[in-house]
Amino acid sequence: MKKKLDLLSVAIAGVSYLYLIIMTAAGTGEGLSISTFALLGTLGWITSYTTWKSGNNPGVAMSYAIGATATAVTLIVKGRYGWSGFDTAIAALVLTCIILLLTSSNKLALAFAVAASAISFIPFVVLTWKFPAASPVIPNTGFLVANILALIAAKSWKLEARLYPSSNTIICALLVIPWIIARL
User: Residue 74's domain spans which residues?
Assistant: First the structure.
C-alpha cells in the first residue's frame, strides 16, 4: 500500500509540475523567478540524493528537482531573467548544502537543503497571502496532495524519510489556504 501511495505521490507531483510548466510556457512567466527555480531545482537534487543515500524513497524530491529545473529552463526560453539579493542568500544556502554534502553527513545536508527550500518559498507564500487569486492554485493543490501522500508513504519515522514531505506539506498548505479563504 505504501509503495502505491508513494508512486501516486510522484505521479501527482510530476503532473502538477507539468501543468505549471505548460502554464508558464503559454503565459508570460510573470511572478516566477528563474533564479528561484534554478536554486529550488538544485536543492531538489541535493534532497533527492541525500534521501536516496539514506535508504528512503527520493521520488517526490526528484519530481520537484526535475520540475523546478524544467521550469527554470522554460523561464530562460521565455526571457524571464533576474537575480535579487534574496536569491544571493538562497544561493549561499545552496552552496552550504553542497559543501555539507561533500564534507559532512547526508542528514545535515538534507536538513540544510530542506531549510533552504523552505526559506526560498517565503516570497511565494507572502505574495499568495497578499494576492491569492494570482496564485497557481491547481499545481499548488497537486503539490500539497503529493506531499501528504509522500508523508503517509514514508518508509520510517526517521528524519530522512519525513522531513522533506513534512516541510513541503506545510509550505504547500500555506500556498493553498489563502486561495480557499478568498473563495469563502
Answer: 2-183
